[in-house]
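Exercise 7.
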Amino acid sequence: MKRKLKYAALGLGLFSFFLVITFPFDRLVTPLNRLSSQVLSQATGHSFECRMGIPQISWTLSVRSSSLRCEAPRMPDIEFRNLELRLLPWKHRLSLRQGEDAQLSASVWMRPWSPPRRTRLELDRFQAETLLPLVFGAIRMTGTPVAFDLEMQGRITGLVDLPLRDFERANGEVQLRFEDMKIPRQALLDLIGLQDLSVDPAVIHARIDRGHVSIEEVRLQSETAAIELEGGWQLTENLEESTGNLLFRWRIQESDATRRSFLGPLLRQNFCQSVDPQGFCQIRFARLSDFGL
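Solution. The predicted structure, written as tokens, is:
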């Protein structure tokens, strides 16, 4: 009986190997192009058309493609290479490269028949102008309203390791460093009365320890504007009930343009409870509803 089982397993393995090496992967190109175009268009709000290289399967049970290029009217082209997608029952993983040295790796952990429980994103000199539209689009797809898109240029390096449920007991970390970061003139800056911003330093670092978020360092600084965040936050299973003590500090160099702008005076009225000796406006947040001030 054992010998029969061994032969059956060997036959099944050889049959699977035969399917892998003879499967017409070129037939997957059209549906994968359609899926990539649909996902990217929904995430960014622009009509992207994507073209993928012929996929192949590797011995690690992952699907690989040499390239993916996506184009949309009045948008910069998005081009990736060396894509690898692995869909295991307990973990989904996507890795890709951009240009000569930029890399991205995204993983999602789950259990069968249950929602995802954790996600991890690792970045190495990845282009902000490619990543941020996807981030804002993903936020909108969750139903969270986002009033504006922030255009940003530069490179992002670091990791985002976050829980997707069981927030009260979860651990995690966000550690991002921005290189050559620039915020070009756009509608949001015009509303405040600011021109192009070159931001240095630009650092985001926070930890989650058993549901408690500790802000290690959040600092974005330019010649005419600066933002800092400090404090902590206690997560609950219902995130809307989470509470904490966050101190948001910001400073904008006043000028005739900021005083005449639409949002400049409103910022001081609504987001400046006090001014510290360094000239930073300060406001504290204790619950999520406070962010609607």
